[in-house]
Amino acid sequence: MNETLKNTALFGLVAVLIIGTGFLQSWNSALFILNFGLISAIMALGVNLQWGFAGLFNVGIMGFVALGGLATVLVSMPPTTEAWAAGGVGVIVALLMGAATIVVTALVIKRMPAGWMRTVVILVLLIGGFFIYRALFDPSVARIEAINPASTGYLGGINPGGAAWGWMTLLAWPVGGLLAAGVAWIIGKTALGLRSDYLAIATLGIAEIIIAVLKNEDWLSRGVKNVIGLPRPAPYEVELQADPAFLDRAASLGMDPVTASTIWVKLVYAGLFTVVLVILFVLAQRALHSPWGRMMRAIRDNENASEAMGKDVTARHLQVFILGSAICGIAGAMMTTLDGQLTPGTYQPLRFTFLIWVMVIVGGSGNNLGAVLGGFLIWFLWVQVEPMGLFVMQLITSGMADGAPLKTHLIESAAHMRLLTMGLVLLLVLRFSPRGLIPER
Amino acid sequence: MDLLNAFVTLSNFVLIPAIAYGSQLALGALGVTLIYGILRFSNFAHGDTMAFGTMVTILFTWLFQSWGLSLGPVPTALLALPFGILGCMALLLFTDRVVYKFYREQKAKPVILVIVSLGVMFIMNGLVRFIIGPDDQRFSDGERFIVSVRTFREMTGLEEGLAIKTTQGITVITAVIVVAALFWFLNRTRTGKSMRAYSDNEDLALLSGINPERVVMITWLIVAALATVAGVLYGLDKSFKPFTYFQLLLPIFASAIVGGLGSPLGAIAGGFTIAFSEVMVTYAWKKVAGYALPESLAPDGLAQLLSTDYKFAVSFVILLIVLLFRPTGLFAGKSV
């Protein structure tokens, strides 16, 4: 079987699965899988850039995805003017002060000769800086959070038009990428160049910290109180249902207005996401087949030889690490847009970091098409394993008496079949087809 | 100024909890470090291994409790612990046979083994949630305190009280026994020496006739015991929740790396370093400072450096500092 045929068949399979969901369950769930599949495919592209091209082991994807979500809030929400007046300047000055402390300390470490003098200066700088920072920061934060805590209590975003300017949310996507890229630069500067395991631990840690910040810094994004009702680029279902032209069209297709409006909104999102995916895919594909991509793979396969050829390994690693993280940030912003809310409590490493890894490995690391395929396929499995598990459990327990403790337990546990299945899929692919479904060429 | 009361408060809120937490981290980090030394990869499934061992222990504890079996003031879980260890050993030997052995024979790169351990982590995590559910489980019974705040106050007549929970006492005693046994095993017995030889230089060890499969098997057995003990102690002290055990991965790895991956002594030092910094940075020092400083200097606020939600950040920052200035850790570990 030639390669094009095989790839077409694999993507055809994904299409059949999704369309099958549409016929068997509902078109709403099919489009739900499609939309999140598109987002997952973009995340997988980002991870593939890091792992497939450059062999960097990043397990902090969740953090970058969450940063994208934060960007959506910061860009698309209207500003809380009272909060800005109360403490906006104070918080920004405090943050600048904190950043300045770190920069000055870094300069001292670089410029001053090593010795006890330097240690003392560094300690004084860090401790003094920290206390000044807290002294500036805490009162402003308290003032911001005091303003109408039930609905705002945070600085808000930069969208002057509010819900009417839903298109601003589209701007959040690239901003999410930039934000993720900035954080990736900081991590890369410190952790790249160390051993591969250390990068893994460092990224794992930074992801947890980003989530902790999102959960606790109420002035920034309301923490666990969540920001809901984000303005969105797609029309609202309620407006569609009130629009006579839309109702006519729905009636002519023989659909009831509620279903028609939800499906139409999801289709709009699917269109937007597809555009982003296609752009990123083409870019990634061009990068892979450019001299830059060949150099990356050379570095991945033999760092020493590439270094001997005059390639700056650490700088290239930093570059690709930032690019990959930025793509994850974009995907994260898109996901928050689709959800219409930022809920820091829902970010879980198993779902947002390790699941993406399964996608890349199963799809085929080093191959962009493979990553996209893995994104769709694994996302489909992730969604559908639960009902399938439930079905299997009901089949197994059908002989048992209703209300038997074992039966209730088994049926309740069906939800956890997901993790088991994902682990199993990952191990089976690694063992029997380590290059993935669409191997690198 | 009242230094005695200051010290009692400090012990009650910082020293004792940090010692207990540090012992738990040290036991966890010992497992990670042993796997790294012998099998040469970072085992991401370690947190879930701990969760599995603890789960088996909890199930046996419930069984014993239903039989009316108990150890009096000491938690029943200690009686169930050996069974938990056996269950965990069985699981780890099974995973090694089915999963890891293949890659060992292929001489796969360490990073591939790390990804494989991700898969194992998924499965173990799913297994634990499947069997016991994702919720909090408390399984501690028996006497709650060795010394309670009230008895301490009555005994000493001090204003501040000091409480030592039974679980904290058990944690420290068990940790000391386990660590002593481990070091005796590694330094005195023939098998332990062969393990260290294998860790130091694989080829040389093979040449001197050490059976690698046996070394690997014994490593897994020891790791199972360490992980279960660490998990059960943590669960007794706080509570058991599968997701928390997964999150323990970060401080445990930080401990192992700070101490120097591959060095057992370093794992212990690292565990205590991380535990003490976590507790000290997130503790509100107002009360202690109020006693220790002259009245004019006493702080107005809570004097808390960071909110407790940022404890991950603490272990992480220490990890970064150590990595930047001493990349092999406090006790020179190995670097693959």
Automatic annotation (TrEMBL), chain A:
<dbReference type="InterPro" id="IPR001851">
    <property type="entry name" value="ABC_transp_permease"/>
</dbReference>
<keyword id="KW-1133">Transmembrane helix</keyword>
<keyword id="KW-0812">Transmembrane</keyword>
<feature type="transmembrane region" description="Helical">
    <location>
        <begin position="116"/>
        <end position="136"/>
    </location>
</feature>
<feature type="transmembrane region" description="Helical">
    <location>
        <begin position="198"/>
        <end position="214"/>
    </location>
</feature>
<feature type="transmembrane region" description="Helical">
    <location>
        <begin position="56"/>
        <end position="77"/>
    </location>
</feature>
<keyword id="KW-1003">Cell membrane</keyword>
<dbReference type="InterPro" id="IPR043428">
    <property type="entry name" value="LivM-like"/>
</dbReference>
<feature type="transmembrane region" description="Helical">
    <location>
        <begin position="7"/>
        <end position="24"/>
    </location>
</feature>
<feature type="transmembrane region" description="Helical">
    <location>
        <begin position="83"/>
        <end position="109"/>
    </location>
</feature>
<feature type="transmembrane region" description="Helical">
    <location>
        <begin position="263"/>
        <end position="284"/>
    </location>
</feature>
<feature type="transmembrane region" description="Helical">
    <location>
        <begin position="164"/>
        <end position="186"/>
    </location>
</feature>
<feature type="transmembrane region" description="Helical">
    <location>
        <begin position="30"/>
        <end position="49"/>
    </location>
</feature>
<protein>
    <submittedName>
        <fullName>Branched-chain amino acid ABC transporter permease</fullName>
    </submittedName>
</protein>
<dbReference type="Pfam" id="PF02653">
    <property type="entry name" value="BPD_transp_2"/>
</dbReference>
<feature type="transmembrane region" description="Helical">
    <location>
        <begin position="350"/>
        <end position="369"/>
    </location>
</feature>
<feature type="transmembrane region" description="Helical">
    <location>
        <begin position="318"/>
        <end position="338"/>
    </location>
</feature>
<keyword id="KW-0472">Membrane</keyword>
Automatic annotation (TrEMBL), chain B:
<protein>
    <submittedName>
        <fullName>Branched-chain amino acid ABC transporter permease</fullName>
    </submittedName>
</protein>
<feature type="transmembrane region" description="Helical">
    <location>
        <begin position="312"/>
        <end position="333"/>
    </location>
</feature>
<feature type="transmembrane region" description="Helical">
    <location>
        <begin position="248"/>
        <end position="276"/>
    </location>
</feature>
<keyword id="KW-1003">Cell membrane</keyword>
<dbReference type="InterPro" id="IPR001851">
    <property type="entry name" value="ABC_transp_permease"/>
</dbReference>
<keyword id="KW-0029">Amino-acid transport</keyword>
<comment type="similarity">
    <text>Belongs to the binding-protein-dependent transport system permease family. LivHM subfamily.</text>
</comment>
<feature type="transmembrane region" description="Helical">
    <location>
        <begin position="12"/>
        <end position="39"/>
    </location>
</feature>
<keyword id="KW-0812">Transmembrane</keyword>
<feature type="transmembrane region" description="Helical">
    <location>
        <begin position="77"/>
        <end position="99"/>
    </location>
</feature>
<feature type="transmembrane region" description="Helical">
    <location>
        <begin position="168"/>
        <end position="186"/>
    </location>
</feature>
<keyword id="KW-0813">Transport</keyword>
<keyword id="KW-0472">Membrane</keyword>
<keyword id="KW-0997">Cell inner membrane</keyword>
<dbReference type="InterPro" id="IPR052157">
    <property type="entry name" value="BCAA_transport_permease"/>
</dbReference>
<feature type="transmembrane region" description="Helical">
    <location>
        <begin position="111"/>
        <end position="132"/>
    </location>
</feature>
<dbReference type="Pfam" id="PF02653">
    <property type="entry name" value="BPD_transp_2"/>
</dbReference>
<feature type="transmembrane region" description="Helical">
    <location>
        <begin position="215"/>
        <end position="236"/>
    </location>
</feature>
<feature type="transmembrane region" description="Helical">
    <location>
        <begin position="51"/>
        <end position="71"/>
    </location>
</feature>
<keyword id="KW-1133">Transmembrane helix</keyword>
